[in-house]
Amino acid sequence: MPTPPTLDTAATTTHGAQLSRSLGVGGNVLITLSGISPASSVFILGGAALATYGTGVFWGFALAGVISLLIALCYAELGSRHPIAGGDYSLVNRVLGPAAGAAVFFINLVTLPLIVAIFALGVADYLGVAIAGLDPLWTAIIVIVLATITACFNIRTNAWVTGAFLFVEMAALALLAVLGFVEVERPVTDLFDPQALDLASGGLAPLGIAGLVLAITQGIFSYNGYGGAIYFAEETRNARRAIARAVIWSAVITVLAELIPLTAILLGADSLEALFGAELPVESFLAGSAGDAVTVVVLIAVALAIVNAIIAIALQAGRLLFAAARDGAMPGGLARPLATVSAATKMPVAATVVMGVLALAACFVPFDVLLNATGSTLAFSYGFIALAAIAVRRQTNRETASGASTSAYFRMPLWPLAPIVALAAIATIFVIGILDPGQWLSLGIAAGIIAAGFAYYALYLRRNPGAAHLLDADEDDDLA
């Protein structure tokens, strides 16, 4: 007879401060998709990919979608096993140990504020079509302040706010898809042979394997963010079952919401050469198909989508710092205020405000430095997640063999395909980066951040027995 599930304090410990478990799967998905911002990904990252990789975007983003869904399965299994706040940090810390946890904590502590700054500095470019003369820096500062204030409201309010913005950006993507599919200029089979613009001749030329791999890398980066659902696991009802669904739904919707309009643009553009040669390919297609007035409205919607993403990422950033402080991953005098939860909103207000201040400071960093500091960290994060997924399945199998019930945990299908393919894709990205001197600075910064995390563990956490060690706690009954 199987024994009852054992208390998994590593998965459920709350260290005294708890967030409000008031989100359903839908609310979690709304906030997670808002952080991904499919519309801004299509206009910014998708547009850059079209200019560089041409029709290779179709295969590149399709294959990137497959890889992203496999990585999402890793997140889903880990999140089901450890449904608490903190995102990648909490998962890796509890599965691979505090040394790896410290490295991932440093990755996210640095990159989340920098990503907020990058997004905020780009808002003026899109709002500028309606409000002339906006200063990018002051626009960014105002947007970050307002987003941080909004992120301090209760989680259900944030789900409604981000959901409303998300509806607007999804409508913009639907318009792109309709415009492309209504007047198809070429059969879909034309996309099967990847071709990009040859700057020398002005015509199309075959895209090599290396270019296609880079297009896949761009697609993976464009889809990134579905793992953000883990940040809100502690606020999601019936988390052991619901969090896996939230991650997978977020990934599926993201891939479809980006791949479909990009494919529609490739099929509906009057001239692929003109599309790929345009300074802003997606905006160029929109203006040519719907006119300038509609383009202005859609670009304002993209600006709102970016603001929405900043709110969602501010929510994630606050929960990262809150979770690390609650774990004791920093000195007590610093950790205590950051690990508090507002009695009124059940939100980690102090941690959210601190991360907002860091994002404000990042706005004064040169833009190219911001891009280099965030460019290669994603691959490292996915690598830790894939390794953690392998480790957590081995732990679950051992518990099952000992007679413990593990039926409550989500188990990804086709094991171990997902983590193995993810690790292979990440290894490919590293090889490409190492071979490209232009990526060395970004890789070096990412490696330096990780080295700083391990050094922090060696010099502080390991020497302080109460730091970053999971404390005994009662099982949270609402996780079942």
Described by the principal axes of the CA atoms, the overall outline is globular
Low-confidence stretches: 1-16, 468-478
Q: What is the name of the CATH superfamily? A: Amino acid/polyamine transporter I
Strands in their spatial order, largest beta sheet:
1-2
List the helices and strands and how they pair.
Layout: H1 9-12, H2 25-36, H3 38-53, H4 56-81, H5 88-95, H6 98-127, H7 136-151, H8 155-182, E1 195-197, E2 204-206, H9 209-223, H10 239-268, H11 272-277, H12 281-290, H13 292-326, H14 332-338, H15 349-362, H16 367-375, H17 377-401, H18 417-435, H19 440-461
Antiparallel strand pairs: 1-2
General description of the model:
The chain has helices at residues 9-12, 25-36, 38-53, 56-81, 88-95, 98-127, 136-151, 155-182, 209-223, 239-268, 272-277, 281-290, 292-326, 332-338, 349-362, 367-375, 377-401, 417-435, 440-461; strands spanning 195-197, 204-206. The chain is an all-alpha fold and 480 residues long. It has one domain (23-464): Up-down Bundle (Amino acid/polyamine transporter I). A two-stranded antiparallel sheet has the order 1-2. Helix 2 (25-36) crosses helix 13 and helix 3 (38-53) packs parallel to helix 8. The two termini are 21 Å apart. The relative contact order is 0.21. The model is unreliable at 1-16 and 468-478 (pLDDT under 50). Its main location: membrane. It comes from Agromyces lapidis.
